[in-house]
Amino acid sequence: MLQRIQQEHFQSLLGKVIALLLPDGSQLPIVIESVPLRPKSQLPGNERMPFGVALHTLEPTLFVDGLCAIELPDLGRVEDIFVSREPAMGRDDTLGYFNIVFN
User: How many CB atoms lie within 10 A of CB 41?
Assistant: First the structure.
């Protein structure tokens, strides 16, 4: 299922509040900030253009990283997406900032 995910699945969610389903079963409201392409990361023979997904929470969270699930347009619930936390680095340090990488 993860191989079917394309940048376009997240593009339609830019700026929208959606739920990130955490490993413990709880839901964390997040906003998709950006979906940058990563052409320099593309492996030979791989048809999908690598991309990232930057997102942030709307509330404080202790979640750091792990396998999560998310509802995507046209695909439904997609599980086992690894989400990793990034430092706030000048942003609101009461929120959580995360990144997903699709190679």
Answer: 14
